[in-house]
Amino acid sequence: MSRVGRQPVPVPAGVEVDIEGSRVSVRGPKGQLERQFPPGMQFQVEDGRIRVNRPSDAARHRALHGLSRSLLANMVTGVSEGFAKTMELQGVGYRAAMQGDKLVLSLGFSHPVEVAPPKGVTFEVEGTSRVHVRGIDRQKVGQAAADLRALRPPEPYKGKGVRYLGEIVRRKAGKAGKAAKGR
């Protein structure tokens, strides 16, 4: 059996789980999430835990077993604690500011870039060079952060751009580094 799929998902206090066949709805203090799981996956609630069972040992069911358990665990964590990603802007003149609910970024272009948060995701600016992406749906938070990074990915020569907090960017030597090598 799948090592991930075998583990039960703990349900913290204040979180309600409704299971109707393969449709699972999770409600908690931060909001509500609902998902249609692959047909055949079975969910059992027992003393504050949810177990995910697969109907057979077919390759498809084995593949979906751990995935279903991980998605369910992310739903429970999202409605109880939420998810966050922190983005960092590096570069001279690179700034972030909030204008209403929109994020306005100065990224070295001839114009400021306005980004509206997707539904269920919020942006928060700390100082002028950090942006926090928060929400209850892990997939939406990750996608919103990836979309921000794609606006100006970090370049390898000076390291300027939008990056995840703690992301390591491999640096390259410029033209001078190449000339010094040959001598």
Low-confidence stretches: none
Number of strands: 13
What strand line-up does the widest sheet have?
A: 11-12-7-13
Question: In angstroms, what separates the terminal alpha carbons?
Answer: 59 Å
Shape: elongated
Question: How does CATH name the architecture of the largest domain?
Answer: Alpha-Beta Complex
Strand residues, percent: 35-45%
Summing up helix and strand content along with how strands pair, one would put the structural category as alpha+beta
Order of helices and strands: HEEEEEEHEEEEEEHEH
Number of helices: 4
CATH homologous superfamily name of the largest domain? Ribosomal protein L6
Overall number of structural domains: 2
Major pleated sheet: 4 strands, antiparallel
The CATH topology annotation of the largest domain reads as Outer Surface Protein A, domain 3
What's the helical proportion of residues?
25-40%
Give the radius of gyration. Answer: 22 Å
Mean pLDDT: 91
CATH class of the largest domain: Alpha Beta
Protein model, in words:
The structure is a single chain. A hairpin with a 6-residue loop joins strand 9 (102-106) and strand 10 (113-115). The chain has four helices and 13 strands. The chain has a four-stranded antiparallel sheet with strand order 11-12-7-13, with helices on one face. A three-stranded antiparallel sheet has the order 1-6-5. The protein has a three-stranded antiparallel sheet with strand order 2-3-4, with helices on one face. It has 183 residues and is an alpha+beta fold. It starts with a helix and ends with a helix. The chain has two domains: 3-80, Ribosomal protein L6 (Outer Surface Protein A, domain 3), CATH 3.90.930.12; 83-164, Ribosomal protein L6 (Outer Surface Protein A, domain 3).
